[in-house]
Amino acid sequence: MTQNKQGQALDLKHSRILIAGAASLVGSHTADLLLKEGVREVLLLDNFAFGSMDAIAHIQDDPRVKIVRADLMRLPDLLAATEGVDGVIHLAAYMTLGFSQTPWQAVDVNIRGAQNMLEACRANKVKKVIFASSNAVYGYGTGIKGALVEQGPFHSTGAPPAAILYGASKIMGEQLCRQYHQNHGLDYVVLRYSTVYGERQHYRAANSLYIMETYDQIRSGKAPVLPGDGSETKHFVHVSDVARANVAALQSQATDVAVNVSGPAPITTGELVQLVLDYCKSDLKPEVRPDPPGKVRLTSGGAFHIPHDLAYQMIGWKPVVEMREGVNRLLAWRESKEKNQSH
């Protein structure tokens, strides 16, 4: 993918932006930021199979918001939804757990669904597509070390099939974007997210789920569990930083490029558990207990890091939320949600 081309930069005040998979963690925060930045209209597209109205209920009465119930597998739905739209942020996808549980549907949605959206964008002359990819495109195999840069290879040895399938589906999505750019001039930016976490967290992402599980465990007075010796590296990025990357990519002139969207620094499992213990003001000691066979958890094991220098160069973005602040914000949100539910 070349890095010197210039595409269309969208002026949000005159733009209609569609978010596919909007009733999600990233979708809802991105919609919030678009509204704050003065977008003309934002269309929140979801089939609500996984997403929840709860995630977007706080903005549904904004006159600039339109909620669109549609399915990625139905091209006519997408052709209708993208009419008159300037930019699309394509988030809708199955994650690794989905590839473990319902691989047939996951392959369909992540590949055919992306193809359908790109075809609708081509037909309706959408100016720019932001495609949510993942650091899974580097694979999760053994022997990954050093910097995972955007031109890096795909590692698959030793990783669970669901993780490889998910990563491969994102590679397919990226290359479909590239093909539509080459054949039809459709501008796009691929954002390769690290594990996204933050307020409005759901229980579907394997690594983010670990933060929630650890918190639940500590709150019930039980020792938190370390699946390994605590030294595996994990790569998180706070949802507010991801929303900023989505909006920055729309507003940039970048096109035909893929960039990493990662947090300020990697963290080990042991450090992560300690952050949750600190938040809970607990002196419980973590217990080492290997995962049972077949459990999908994406431990990297390797000493690698995911630089985001290219994202700064191409779209002017870098992360600002440190892990301690992000975990504190997530858990404070979780507590306030529980308080509201108990009233």
Write the layout of secondary structure elements.
Blueprint: E1 16-20, H1 25-36, E2 41-46, H2 53-56, E3 65-69, H3 75-81, E4 87-90, H4 96-101, H5 103-123, E5 128-134, E6 146-147, H6 161-184, E7 187-193, E8 195-197, H7 206-219, E9 225-226, E10 233-234, E11 236-238, H8 239-251, E12 257-261, E13 267-268, H9 269-279, E14 287-288, E15 304-305, H10 309-315, H11 323-342
Helix pairs in contact: 1-8, 3-5, 5-6, 7-9, 9-11
Order of helices and strands: EHEHEHEHHEEHEEHEEEHEEHEEHH
| Main pleated-sheet profile | 7 strands, parallel
Q: Tell me what portion of residues adopts beta-strand conformation.
A: 15-25%
| Average of pLDDT | 90
Quickly give the structural class.
alpha/beta
User: Which sequence of strands runs across the widest sheet?
Assistant: 3-2-1-4-5-7-12
The CATH architecture of the domain at 12-196 and 237-262 and 305-320 is 3-Layer(aba) Sandwich
List low-pLDDT spans.
none
Assembly type of the chains comes to single chain
CATH class of the domain at 12-196 and 237-262 and 305-320: Alpha Beta
Structural shape: globular
CATH topology of the domain at 12-196 and 237-262 and 305-320: the name is Rossmann fold
CATH level-4 homologous superfamily of the domain at 12-196 and 237-262 and 305-320: NAD(P)-binding Rossmann-like Domain
Strand segment tally: 15
Task: Please work out how many helical segments DSSP would assign.
Answer: 11
CA radius of gyration is: 19 Å
Give the termini distance in whole angstroms. 53 Å
Helix content: 40-55%
